[in-house]
Every structure is written in C-alpha cells, then in structure tokens.
Amino acid sequence: MIVYDLVCAHGHRFEGWFASGDAFTEQRARALVSCPVCNDAAIERLPSARVSVSRPTPAEPAPSPPPTRVPASNAAGLPADVLVKLRELVKQTENVGRRFPEEARKIHYDEAPARPIRGQASAEEARALDDEGIAFSPVPPFLLPDTH
Asked: CB-hemisphere CA count at 13 Å for 39?
C-alpha cells in the first residue's frame, strides 16, 4: 500500500491510498481519481515527506506507526469533521432535480409533505421563490454526494 499527497488543478490538497505506484498511474489515466472537494480529475502528485522504514532487526524495537493524518481544514475552509457532517446532512435530502422550484412551492404551501429536498433552479426561479418567501439555500458542489 502506498499513500500519495495529491492536488487537483484548483489547488485542493488531499491524500490517496493505492496498491502501488502503477495502480495510481492507471487509475489517474482512467479518470478514477478525483478531488473530494470539487470532483476535478486533473490530479497531480505532490512531493511527500513520508519515509519508508525498513523492518526492525530483532535487537531493535518496532517503530511506532505514523499517526493518522487528518487535515485540520480543507479547501472549503471548514474543519474536516464539520465537512463530514455537512455531507451526511446533504445525503439525507431528496434530489428532485429540475423540479426543485415546483417541489419547494408544494412543500411551502402544504400541498406536499414537508421533507428535505435539493435540486436545481435558475437564477430567475430562485428570485421568484425568494419573492414568495420560500426559504432555501444553495448547496456548494463539494457537499453533493452525487459528484463523489
């Protein structure tokens, strides 16, 4: 198993675990490696400070395993644990796609059961919903489970 420090074309840094260097190269060539923040597939390896340690001889103690690296924050400027929780919340919503304005109105006017939804709306549709007093909020792409 090999761990690489990676970066997308937008500068988001993350790490990837691969069976080998060849496995990384093959997966990247097939666009199977993508940024967890923006889903960009233009991924490059970064220089890494990780050092391989040879197996200890019987006289020397085994080295401690390196600590699990959890980034303190990500490209979105959120702590990693907050980002995880937000993605979990978004996963619990129903994706109604282009029907979002229609479904939001039905929920607002009690014509459909209240439930968490997400989808797409044009700028004009969003202004109309806002004018009607229908509360909604854009969801940044890095939180959407459909893109990962």
From this structure: 9
